[in-house]
Amino acid sequence: MLAIQPDSPMPLVAQIVDGLRQLISAQTLRAGAKLPSIRAFAVSHGVSVFTVVEAYDRLVAQGWVVSRGNAGFFVKWRAGEPGEAPDRAPADLSFDGSWYLQQIFESRSLALKAGCGWLPQDWLFEDGVRRSLRQLAADGVELGGYGLPQGHLALRMLIAENLGERQIGVEAPNVLLTQGSSQALDLIARRLVKPGDAVLVDDPGYPNLMFMLRFLGARLVGVPRTPDGYDLAALEAALIEHKPRVFFTQPRLQSPCNAVARPAMLHRLLQLAESHDLTVIENDIYADLDPEPRSTLASLDQLRRVVHIGSYSKTISPNIRVGFVAARQDLLDGLARLKMVSGLTSSDLTERLAHGALTEGRWRKHLKGLRERLAEAHGVVGQRLRGLGFELFGEPKAGLYLWARHPDLPDSAEASRAAVGQGIMLGPGQLFLVEPRPTGWLRFNVAFSNDERLFGFLAAQIEQQGQQAAA
Predict the structure, then answer these.
(1) Could you tell me if 376 and 394 lie in one domain?
(2) Which of 359, 375, 395 is a domain's end point?
(3) In terms of domains, do 79 and 177 share one?
(4) Over the chain (471 residues), what is each successive 10-residue block's mean pLDDT?
(5) Rounded Cα distance, 280 and 299, in Å
(6) Which long-range contacts (CB under 8 A, 24 or more apart) does 162-169 make?
(7) CB-count exposure of residue 140 (10 Å: 0-12, 13-18, 19+)
(8) pTM to 2 decimal places
């Protein structure tokens, strides 16, 4: 079909994309024509299946090709072409990310939660919470009235001390407690984003944040993530073209792809932020899961242009809705006022409970054991996925996630629907993209994924897809 030049300086993926676009533009490939299967194209052109997967994904994203469930890839009807749109997908093939997030992704009813965003109950700090509860009861904690606008002072002082250990110089007045990191993101977005503003976000990134920003009327601009950080050329181009003022990002153990940005990437990001008057929101909620001491944007910038977010919901308990924002004083004061206007204070009781769990003496031992369990799970789950033929985006062997795809599973939303019928929750990649489209990427939570039911399901799906492609 195409003449691939392995010695050309143009990447193979770009050669395939450009070549197919030319064939479609010349109507050598007409609307509705089926492209060769991924495996057949790879064999006939002497390239890897992952190269073809990436090329087809790009053509879908650019609107040249459409993916139809288990049927394959077809040339998309484009405005101005004669005839009806033969590739218009049936309604039941559409993927509603907000519905999936609410009805399935957060569901506790499925037996196996391989795509979820939390830790198993027996991995959490239950003993610390129980001891803190007993101590609060013994102390006769007050239940009347409200807490302080910025949150429980002792916990803010402890957070400031812990941030100091990470080379972020703050005092308690620079810390605002929130109801988890979600409220922190919401307050910052409402404080800094106006309808019509261009806002940078990680791509792939955090679905709840994207829904929140769209609700506020923001125009989302994705910054592609790489295993070691960011596509800096794309970031700089987006800054020049869209002139955003805010960038929401997770440099460390990012969800969904678990990428960790190298220090050089962080330095360059801050240089670009300075040049383009950009405020960077650093969501560092997985910091306690990282065994490596790393530079953060906040430690390099000291909160000049960076707003730093943290949370204890991932490591103590999701029901302990305690997060925090560290920021320069003028911005923090505005966030505190907005917090009071929208919800008065956060819960002094849960903040005291979190403080007790963090200071009762076993917290650091709990974190050490948790990190070791996650590292072991990464090794086992990563090996099993590779054994099935999955490509892994990166392997930091820390944090919650592996981001992976298989050449015979081009539409992770379809695989996720099939998984629900077997009591398995997957994390379909389409959910995490700034511009949702069919993709083979899946997010696996390693703490829930070392299960034969999951690997049996994936193996069956791969075999089924292979048989259909060969038919």
Answers:
(1) yes
(2) 359
(3) no
(4) 80 85 83 85 85 82 72 72 43 49 56 89 87 78 70 93 94 93 93 95 94 92 94 95 97 96 96 97 96 95 96 86 93 90 77 88 92 97 96 93 94 88 89 89 96 95 79 59
(5) 13
(6) 163/298, 163/308, 163/310, 163/326, 166/287, 166/293, 166/296, 166/299, 167/295, 167/296, 167/299, 168/296, 168/298, 168/299, 168/302, 168/303, 168/308, 168/326, 169/302
(7) exposed
(8) 0.80
